[in-house]
Amino acid sequence: MSDRQALTRFARQEAERQGFGLFGVTPADPLAGAGFYARWLALGFAGRMSWLERNVEGRADPRQRVPGARSVICLGMHYDPPAADEPEPAPGRPRGRIARYARGDDYHGLIESRLKGLWEALRERAGGGEGRWSVDTAPVLERELAARAGLGWWGKNTCLINRRGGSYFFLAEIVTTLELTFDSPEVDHCGSCTLCLEACPTDAFPEPYVLDARRCISYLTIELKEAIPRELRGGVGDWVLGCDICQEVCPWNRRAAATEEEAFHPRPGLDPVDLVELLGLDRDAFNERFRRNPAKRPKRRGMLRNAAVCLGNAGDRRVVPHLARALARDEEPLVRGHVAWALGQLGGGEARQALRDARERETDAEVLEEIEAALAAAA
Asked: CA angle at residue 239 from 237 to 240, to 5 degrees?
């Protein structure tokens, strides 16, 4: 066994010890997918995620992160939690869903600490070398790197899919000057299947292998900081944070690997979520409930906006008093506007009266516009 093979074998074993279920190595060469990425941005499919437009050239070449880099170690950590034994929400309290990856602790800190441990062990074993690690926070095209390293193939839903582990895994990578043994890319196994494309309720896939993030439920409920377009709110359904639909219908996820990381197991009350309770959380209660959880990204105003949309989609008029209270008291115009929409969707005399009362006291122009539209819908 050569020194390169021995070092790669050590890296693979250490990665497994650190909790990474997937491992592969690819050359630190420029990426062929950079052109596709540039076109995707030019079409506006990134929406308001302006950070994706930064350092486009640097994303195409891992060597710009580590001068003299020769290898990229690509890693995957499974996050699909085991089935939760959560009690059903109280009668009259519709529930919402959170994407699998966000039901436990935020993954960034955990994975970064494991990457640090892996790199330090590898560098010590190699007797030196330079390297930088990242987990979806650096300007690298990590999905293409991982595909090139054999972790999986780019599916029609744009997720990376592994034949043995499905698609419920986080990606991470280490760009290094060390010389390692390279793996072969995986081939596409989607075949003629289009289940993921057909299942998307907001038509976020203009074509196979291409995602228009502006229509994606995950983007709408997490990355979008403004009002969710009215024509897309119905498609959000009961997803209060993220979405798993295109992965749930994927045949390759029938054999998805479950995580062994307890940090990724669902927290109490997050699988499912009591939407009425969520809508009633003040700032302190929200911060306490979602400390070190991915829900902190959209913040309270975004999560309560999402909860209002889900309640409007639930079709249960028993929640009207809770919505009326939020419309009268919540400090955030973004929340009040979406609560008004929800009341308009539910309709009925109580909802219309709550909207008329709010119209008399509301001062925010955008909320007033939502109230008028809701009254028209409720009529």
From this structure: 125
Residue showing tokens 């986080």 = 170
For residues 47 and 224, the answer to whether their CB atoms sit within 8 Å is yes
Is the pLDDT assigned to residue 316 strictly greater than 70? yes
Distance between alpha carbon 111 and the CA centroid of its chain, in Å?
16
- Tell me how far apart the alpha carbons of residues 172 and 336 are, in angstroms, rounded to a whole number: 38
Report, as residue numbers or ranges, the catalytic residues: 136
Residue 55 in this model has a pLDDT that exceeds 90: no
Q: Which amino acid, residue 102?
A: A
pLDDT in tens, 122-161: 999 999 999 999 998 877 899 999 999 999 999 999 999 9
Distance in angstroms (rounded) separating the CA atoms of residues 190 and 209: 10
Is the pLDDT score of 83 beyond 70?
A: no
Contact indicator for 170, 136 with CB cutoff of 8 Å: yes
Q: How many whole angstroms separate alpha carbon 15 and alpha carbon 28? A: 19
CB-based burial of residue 329 (10 Å sphere; 0-12 exposed, 13-18 middle, 19+ buried)? exposed
Q: Which residues pair with 207 in a beta bridge?
A: 210
DSSP 219: I
- Asked whether the beta carbons of 225 and 61 are under 8 A apart, the reply is no
Residues across the chain: 379
| Cα dihedral across residues 254, 257, 259, 264: positive or negative | negative
Residues 255-291 as b/e (b if ≥16 CB within 10 A, e otherwise) read ebbbbebebbbbbeebbbbbbbbbbbbeeeebeebbe
The model's confidence at residue 57, banded by pLDDT at 50, 70 and 90, is: confident
Q: Which two tokens stand for residue 283?
A: 């700032």
pLDDT digits (tens, 9 = 90+) for 325-365: 999 999 999 999 999 999 999 999 999 999 999 999 999 99
Instruction: For residue 121, count other CB atoms closer than 10 A to its CB.
Output: 17
Token digits of residue 183: 């793996």
C-alpha angle 231/233/236, rounded to 5°? 130
Name the nearest CA neighbour of 200 among 244, 164, 170, 233. 244
Amino acid at 43: L
Question: Could you give the CA distance from residue 373 to residue 367 in angstroms, rounded to a whole number?
Answer: 10
Structure tokens at 196: 């993921």
Give the per-residue pLDDT at 84. Answer: 56
